[in-house]
Amino acid sequence: MKVELRYFTGTGNSLKVLSIGRDVFIENKHSVNISAIKIDERIDAADLIGFCFPVYAFGIPRICRNYLNKLHCFENKQKVFVWITAGDDDESGFAVNEAKKILEKKNCVIVYTGVVQMPINWTTSSLPPFPPNKEAAALIIEKGICLTKSMTFEIISGTNRFHQFNYPKRYSIFKFYFDYLLFKYVGLNNMWRNFLVYESCVGCCFCARICPTGGVQIVNKKPAWNSSCEQCMRCVNCCPKEAIYQSMGGDTKGKNKYLEPSFKPI
User: Fold this and answer.
1) What is the crossing angle of helices 134-157 and 13-27, to 10°?
2) What is the pLDDT of residue 169?
3) Contact (CB, 8 A) for 82 and 100
4) Which of 66, 80, 21 minimizes the C-alpha distance to 228?
5) Average pLDDT over residues 175-200
6) Which letter does DSSP use for residue 126 in this model?
7) Going by fewer Cβ within 10 Å, which terminus of the chain is more open, N or C?
8) Coil, helix or strand for 42?
9) Which residue(s) pair with 245 in the sheet?
10) How far is 223 from 234, CA to CA, in rounded Å?
11) Beta-strand relationship, 195-197 and 244-246
């Protein structure tokens, strides 16, 4: 079986999950190609195509929606699976349904959807939950790897399983929709303006080099963010001086930083 895999990741979770799936496919004698999403790419027809995206405020990242919307329509019915990584597997929100809805318009048949809990990376959040410490993160990752292997074996065996949409237990329906719509239509378009640096910033330019969307530029030897920022938190969690924060409650001093241990941003 020929398998094509695509992902978007901020601090490594989605790449880790899809890489584990890749390894299981290969161990079972399937041909696999994996790469990060590229806007306007054309994916050749395959026996199976898999996507893995993170959850951002109960939906998939804007760049992932744009990517899926710009995919060509497959000539023949294309089998697809969608995996979502989330800080809490109960809070994937609309992420699966957003991806599924777009892909079905591209002549895709969704054969499997799943949500994998991985460590939270939202260091600039003003309210908990915050990123876990290294020991707690390792336990979450271990469970995520086990679940991913199980899901991959199910896909190989032909099992169809679909994640069911639910409202997060700690949210009222009103707050759920409020946060989702506020981030999608207001927050994401403006939160990049809130990024600032502490006096510990040395102008090393690392944040600009590793940004997956080109959302950071260096101006007068200091980082400046622009509207292509996806709030993926890579710059915050990778800064060697831990110098990046956000105004309006996004202080990061003393907080755990999270980067999936095997992830190399460059």
Assistant:
1) 40
2) 87
3) yes
4) 66
5) 93
6) S
7) C
8) coil
9) 196
10) 14
11) antiparallel
Q: pLDDT class for 155, splitting at 50, 70, 90?
A: very high
Structure tokens at 28: 């079972």
Q: What is the pLDDT of residue 209?
A: 98
Contact (CB, 8 A) for 208 and 233: no
For residue 35, the one-letter residue type is S
Residue 153 structure tokens: 């074996």
Mean pLDDT of the chain: 96
Alpha-carbon span 237 to 212, nearest angstrom: 14
Distance CA 75, CA 88 (A): 37
The two tokens of residue 160 are 């169809």
- The SS3 of residue 183 is helix
Cβ-based neighbour number of residue 182 at 10 Å: 12
Task: Specify the residue for token string 């949409």.
Answer: 165
Give me the percent of the chain exceeding a pLDDT of 90: 91
β partners of residue 241: none
Distances (CA, A) of 25 to 9, 22, 218, 258: 21, 5, 41, 28
Question: What is the model's pTM?
Answer: 0.96
According to the model, what pLDDT value does residue 4 have?
98
